[in-house]
Structure formats: structure tokens, C-alpha cells
Amino acid sequence: MSRVPLASRPLDLVYFTFFLWHLVASFAVDFQALFYPYTWLPSIPEYYISFSNDPLIGGAMRKEHNLTWFICFLAIEFLFQLPVFVLGMIALWKDSKSIYVLLLVYASSTVTTTLPCLVHVVQHDGLSTAQRTIILSGYVPFSLVPLGMAVDMGYRITNSFTKSSLKND
After folding, report:
1. Please, is 81 exposed, middle or buried when counting C-beta atoms within 10 Å of its C-beta (0-12, 13-18, 19+)?
2. Nearest-CA neighbor of 60 among 85, 83, 19, 29?
3. Which has the closest alpha carbon to 112: 164, 151, 73, 64?
4. Distances (CA, A) of 133 to 118, 136, 153
5. Radius of gyration in angstroms for the set of CA atoms belonging to the chain, rounded to a whole number
6. What is the model's pTM?
7. DSSP 3-state assignment of 1?
8. Which residues, in sequence order, are CB contacts of 17 under 8 Å at separation 6+?
9. In sequence order, which residues have a C-beta less than 8 Å from that of residue 70 and are 6 or more positions away?
């Protein structure tokens, strides 16, 4: 079977772009918060905190003990999600269907870890409406795209099994 170009696969193009965008955001903010103050560009998350007052990134940078759960989520992002971004982009580029199961696991894990972050921001006192909007405008896409990806990958995997079982019958 020949490779279908990425531009001809709209959802895969969205996922590819999402992974690329997520790589930049992860290195610019998330991983710096995880390793702060021993980071390569501490001014980026510091600047982001100065106008957004993000309680999660700021709390992670201050190593607040009540945010240990979030710091663990950042570690998961670094140890699991980062490799998936790269593997996912490569496999999507090549139109490799063997990546579907890993993308389903990634997407399910990401939705599960992002939801508590959204709830924390929504319920956090001390944020102005503008700050909450800024933070959520960054966090919501990192929840919705993986949610759509989980549904899509689940469908693709199920569909491939259905096609396979029809051939065997």
C-alpha cells in the first residue's frame, strides 16, 4: 500500500502540527518549570508567570509541595509524552498505522492528566478573569486535541480489527 501524503490526511495533519507545537511549548515552559532554576531559558516561564499568574507553572517553579501531583504530570510529559511527540510525528509523516495504539495511550493519558489542571485553574482564587482566560486558552487545546485523538485512534483501531475479522470470516 502506498503512503498517503500528510496534507491529504486532515486529522493526521492536525496531530502532527499539535505535536510540533507541543514540543515548542514543552521546552519553552513546561520542562523549564520542571527543572527550574537549572534551565536553559528561565526568562520564558518567568515572563509567562508575570502576566498570567499561572498557579501551576508558578507553583512548579517554586516547588510547592501541594503541587507535587502537577510536578509528577510534568515528569510524565518529559519521560513519556516527549518521546511520543517525536515518534508520533515520524509515524504520521510516514503514514504508519502501527502508531495508532501508542497515540491512543498517549491521548488517554494526556486527557487524564490535563483535566485536573483545568479544574485547578478554574477553581483557583486570586486569578483575574483575564489571567484565567489566558491560562485556559493555553491549557484547553492541550486537552481537546488529545480527547479528539483518543476517540479517533480508538475508532481507527476498532475499524482495523473489524476489517481484519471480516477478511477472516
Report:
1. buried
2. 29
3. 73
4. 11, 5, 30
5. 18
6. 0.91
7. coil
8. none
9. 56, 59, 60, 116, 117, 120
Amino acid at 68: T
Rounded-to-integer distance, Cα 3 and Cα 133, Å: 41
Average pLDDT by stretches of 10, the chain with 169 residues: 90 98 96 90 93 97 95 97 98 97 98 97 96 97 97 96 66
Instruction: Retrieve residue 88's grid coordinates.
Output: 508520533
Distance CA(73)–CA(117), nearest Å, equals 10
Residue 56: what residue type?
L
Q: Output the CA–CA distances (angstroms, integers) from residue 83 to 92, 121, 143, in the order listed.
A: 14, 27, 18
| Spatial distance between the Cα atoms of 152 and 12, rounded to a whole number of angstroms | 10
